[in-house]
UniProtKB/TrEMBL annotation:
Domain called VPS28 C-terminal: residue spans: 180-276
UniProt cross-references to InterPro entries, sorted A to Z: ESCRT_assembly_dom, Vps28, VPS28_C, VPS28_C_sf, VPS28_N, VPS28_N_sf
Protein name: Vacuolar protein sorting-associated protein 28 homolog
Domain VPS28 N-terminal intervals: 70-176
Keywords: Endosome, Protein transport, Transport
Family of this protein: Belongs to the VPS28 family.
Localization per Swiss-Prot or TrEMBL: Endosome
UniProt GO molecular function: protein-containing complex binding
Originating organism: Rotaria magnacalcarata
UniProt-listed GO biological process terms: protein transport to vacuole involved in ubiquitin-dependent protein catabolic process via the multivesicular body sorting pathway
Amino acid sequence: MGSIRSPPSENGCNGETSEVRRNIQDDWQRRDDILLLTTAIKRLVDFLNQFESSCRFRLSTLNEKLTALERHVDYLEAREVRLWKNPRERERYDNMADVFSIITTLQALEKAYIKDLVEPAEYTSNCQILLAKYSAAFRQLEGEFPKVEDFVHKYKLDCPAAILRINEGRPITVRDDRGNMGKSIAETVSLFINLMDKLKLNIRANDMLQTDVRDLLDVINRMNLIPSNYTGRDKIPKWLNILTNMNAAEEITDDQARQFQMDLEICYNEFNRLLSAG
């Protein structure tokens, strides 16, 4: 007689049912994830397509504007624009152009001299030529511009050094014989004392000394009181040359400082003797 199978237990059925449910839930979860990912990819593709279309349109518009601008530039280059209606007006504009170019050139020359890019002799020669040309050119505009400042203001020039040079009427290297001798003497004495005090205080840095040395040499060169054989005309340029060839943070040595101090005292004492003799 064959064996009779016993029916599956209730616990076994429940276990299989739970596993099927879990599988179904996992499957739906994966489907949801795939759906979300697919939707995100579609949105990204749509955005990129819209962005490409927008860029194409904007580039096309920009290209049209550039083409129109190029045509306008070509038209302006081919067209002769005249500022004047008659020879008199043309002469007026020519004179203003001359004054404009002289002032800007003079400003550049002053800055070049300040930066030691031009030798004093060359600076003096070119400055005198420019000042002479300015006087002749500006004379033609005096009816319209009483002062050079009026011309500079109208045409928005930034040239303070050139204006100063024009108002003084001489290069900075030319001696001052216009009643400023007392001021120049006081400035010279002040610079001598200032330099000697700095050396006594062990100030050795180039950027703390060079400006005073340069100013001292400039004021000496402007004074008619000082003869050509004055000791300072040799010693001061020598120290200016030494400092000019150094970096800003570099310092002179103790031996150089000692020699510099002695040279300054010699120059200062001789300067006082010249004042007494004068």
